[in-house]
């Protein structure tokens, strides 16, 4: 007779009952943390659970008002947000997010001008109410409100540490135009689809003494210089401007440029001695070549990580490479997103100026006409020596010409047999 299994229950043993703990027994901070993951409409509905839950939603530390959560009318959205902010009063708020787009399913423009003005007034009053709760993080995505003018309290909120503004009002210069800025604890700022004039941008930088990260996306830049002693990371994506933009930022560590350095918008790094990481990517190169491009690359001698992408950068390098400085501090270089085997001489010329390079990443683009032999204009005979090179990473969408590139690179290293080579297909 086999011994009974210790995991089986005999008929004489009572059944063990399992029950889940009552959520209401959890501490209030835990319950509020759980409610913060719900959208506000769901959080308010928990008031019917018990007496303890009746007013709990009024203390939620995170509010996320997104118009598309409300499948009914715009009027219902306005009514709900106004009432929730009213009933929660001035209880502490960590995060406030308001996402209300004019367009799509809910059109403000389908009403008359008077109704549109009411909605603009609603948005401004909600922002003001939320700021009175001293939030740490605020995101305002109000695309399409052409007459919106942000409340002055937004630029004097001493509790804010992160602020993200996306307003799509590049035609309305008055949307963001504070006369006074005092954001003593702000560390991250992101501005999208805005017109930024000269005194406004500098006023913002002066009024944020702890600002470390600044991101400008799809903005129209109407200023000639940016000065900040504390800024460490600057990103500019698809921005347009006029003339030469001069950067004075002694603490700047990284600069990220995506399609923001073409046409009449030029950059000049005047005081960036701490700069170590630069990413440059844009599709089109301005044929009206100016000295600012030379000055820009001459300012990168302190950089240890450099990424150069897209055809605009390639065209630019072809013009300035003969006068490029030697990048003694450069350790990691990412290069390409075009047919490397056709522009191999350009790469070799650049490697002549990177004697201490340790890692090289190449992005090899797929030929425009797959299967058809491409005319090669590179010889690969330009000598260079990368004595410190330890790793080569090649990313490709088409393998043609890849091994040719590797052979030439290894031929110009002093210890080619010890260089690690990684391949990846994208």
Task: Please give a structural write-up.
By secondary structure, the chain is of the alpha/beta class. It has a domain at 25-60. It has helices spanning 28-35, 40-45, 74-88, 113-131, 198-206, 291-298, 311-320, 344-351, 402-411; strands at residues 62-66, 95-99, 137-141, 162-169, 188-197, 213-217, 220-222, 225-227, 233-237, 240-241, 244-248, 254-258, 266-271, 277-281, 305-309, 332-338, 359-364, 391-396, 420-425. The strands form two sheets. It has a 16-stranded parallel sheet that branches. A three-stranded parallel sheet has the order 8-11-13. Helix 3 runs parallel beside helix 4 (113-131). It is elongated, with a radius of gyration of 29 Å. Mean pLDDT is 79; it is low at 6-10, 104-115 and 371-378. Pfam families: F-box, LRR_At5g56370. Residues 20-68 form the F-box domain. Residues 1-21 are annotated as: Disordered.
What is the strand tally? 19
Oligomer: single chain
By secondary-structure content and strand pairing, the structural class works out as: alpha/beta
Number of helical regions: 9
Strand content: 15-25%
Envelope shape: elongated
Give helix % range. 10-25%
> Which series of helices and strands comes N to C?
HHEHEHEEEHEEEEEEEEEHEHEHEEHE
Mean pLDDT: 79
Instruction: Describe the sheet with the most strands.
Output: 16 strands, parallel
Supply Rg.
Answer: 29 Å
Low-confidence stretches: 6-10, 104-115, 371-378
N-C termini distance? 63 Å
